[in-house]
Specification:
alpha/beta, globular
Length: 128
């Protein structure tokens, strides 16, 4: 699965988990807004755990961070596993979470399999 995601950015639902892969270095408010709309269209008012591969992102605009912090941005989110690849990203995301509290359980991972395993506990059997 990793190889097919290498150059792909997108959102899809698979086995009760919403997958988000972002292969951009800069993440803007417009990208956040588009992602929220795509996720809501896929989930149809049901809550799902989310796997977010953000390893390529180097920066979020201030507006993107503010948009992510709004209550409606997390509607339908049961939990979020964030796949990162460096301690620098971990520090940035931890700082972000201190300022903008995550509305659902969120955890960072450097291992995709562990991230998906952690999300299993948040899956709703009715949504699989």
């Amino acid at each position: 699965m990793e190889e097919t995601r290498k150059n792909y950015s997108g959102i899809w639902l698979e086995d009760g988990i919403v997958y988000t892969v972002l292969n951009y270095e800069m993440f803007t408010e417009e990208m956040v807004e588009s992602g929220i709309k795509q996720r809501l269209a896929i989930t149809k008012d049901k809550a799902y755990p989310i796997y977010a591969d953000v390893r390529k992102i180097k920066n979020f605009t201030r507006e993107a961070r503010q948009r992510l912090a709004q209550k409606d941005a997390a509607f339908g989110t049961a939990a979020v596993a964030i796949l990162i690849n460096s301690k620098v990203q971990e520090v940035l995301y931890n700082f972000f979470n201190v300022i903008y509290k995550a509305p659902a359980p969120a955890k960072m991972f450097t291992d995709e399999a562990k991230a998906i395993a952690w999300l299993q506990q948040y899956k709703d059997p009715n949504n699989v």
